[in-house]
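Worked Example 4.2. Read the sequence first, then its structure tokens.
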Amino acid sequence: MSALQRGSIAIVGAAESDLGKVAEGMSPADLMAQATVRALADCGLKLGDIDGLFGAASQMRNPTLQLREYLGIRPRYQDGTHIGGTSFQSHLIRAQAAIEAGLCNVALIAYGSTQRSVGRAQASPRESNPYETPYRPFLPSSAYALSASRHMHLYGTTREQLAAVAVEARRWAGLNPQAWHREPLTIEDVLNAKMVSHPFTVRDICLVTDGGGALIVTSAARARTLAKPPVFVLGSGECLSHHSISSMPDVTVTPAAFSGPKAFEMAGLGPSDIGVLGLYDAFTINPIMFLEDLGFCPKGEGGPCFVDQATGTDSSLKINTNGGGLSYCHPGMYGIFLLIEAVRQLRGERGPAQVEDCQTALVHGNGVVYSAGTTVILGTGDSL
């Protein structure tokens, strides 16, 4: 297969399902379908237009089969790749390949979870790992805590710098009516919260919510005929690293260090060209390391960057403008919500949270415990 072509496809529809804690009896498929109907309304297409289906879910063994049955559609192409929270960035890459190859014309990417309603243990059961389970880690918190502790040791990253990530996310959440937590948050609030796995308190860790999301993707040519301004895929890159944190080559270097350069090369852009950033923030250490590995600051300087953001010393980086997984929503796998927010920023639809003259966005998804990383760069028509 030839290399993917810059700008050959676009996201034309984007929507969430109900979020937070959903109505009793709703299933992940209900939420996927609800988001799908809303995403179709967003772009003016119909269920019958969908001929490519992409999905992943922790509560559904065969999500594309179940969603096909639920929606009553017969796609010509499907992909159920599951690499954790970055599955949906990966689906976007595969949808582009399928559309370019003529395997489908209109692709649906969908996700749903009732994690808050049914409990995390039931929604995302842990597999036994012969190399780690005997030590009884509290996963995934213990794994990310290991990474954070090493980063603190090597680079002098502080607890206050980690807390600043949560404070900055909450500041953006205050501008988002859909965010689960909107009340003000201070660094002291984060530091004084209940300890979960050192150095993380509960405020350093993502929410546990229900929710789903959907994206509608089609060719650039068709996208230009639809209801909303298309958001083009300019570049992408993917890296698979490991499964267990104990097999990670360096716990302070994430797959973003490898997927990011691929995405920038395809897009013909660099970090200084990006208008808004969506960085997977299941834990406060995540955006710090992604910011470094994607080249937005030198290694070891991600923490001070977030302090500058949270204190208003520097507002040049616009990161997780919906409030992120720390304050907006986090239904088990968060990657699709990064893409939804990027689409809305590039369309100019974010109201008080709108980034001025936003023409490009970078989203970086994270799967399992830094096990997989996928970087996608999106842009408006003016960025082509």
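Now turn to a second chain, presented in exactly the same format:
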Amino acid sequence: MAEVSAQGHQPEYLFWVGCAGAFDKRYQKVTRAFAQILNAANIDYAVLGTEETCTGDPAKRAGNEMLFQMQAMQVIETLNGYGVKKVICTCPHCFNIIKNEYPELGGDYEVIHYSAFIQQLVDRDQIKVNLEGLKNKRITYHDPCYLGRGNGIYEAPRKVINHFNIDYREMKRTKSFSLCCGAGGAQMFKEAEKGQKEVYEERTSDVLATGANIVATACPFCMTMLTDGIKFANKEEEVINMDIAELIAQNLME
């Protein structure tokens, strides 16, 4: 963003990469996949690079309101300084907090989750995918809490997946009745509480019950937890976890 701004250009979109997209090696692949999609569609966008800092979501969910506001104000100052109007987020947690909690602190933007953005690109024929690219695959989709119950976005990810000619299978707990992966609300960063089973184990059992060999996700937290669940169940040879951006990027047509 600093480079294009110095050239006098105002990109239409800011792609908010997020902490996981920047630092987690597995989710860096998702960041690259989504950037590949944006480039294929000739979208005018930029990223903040080293100027991007945490949105403050984990601090707020853990109960540290002061730290959240300090982090949020720093982000808002940066975005407003560049005159950002539209923000695309790959992380539902970043999406939720920038969309719903930044406005009262002076950060008012048009915020879109990348699943909805990809759906728009597909619907408008701005990208072409090989519809047979996932042929003979059985796919299920896990609803991220902050995307689904938190913001009512259920259909966009499914429309992206079902754009392919595939065997799509819903889990028994889905949409507004979906089960959390176990990482939300800052649970990712604390020790497990006493109980008979980890949440990710329970959710992975829902995945395995579908008979799917791909579980699609749209959140870095969900990807981490379900990948752990698949490993815990010793099903790594049978089931893989892929982000919806990877499903599209791997099957893009020129």
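Notes for the reader: Residues 65-81 form the longest helix (17 residues). The chain has two domains: 2-118, 130-253.
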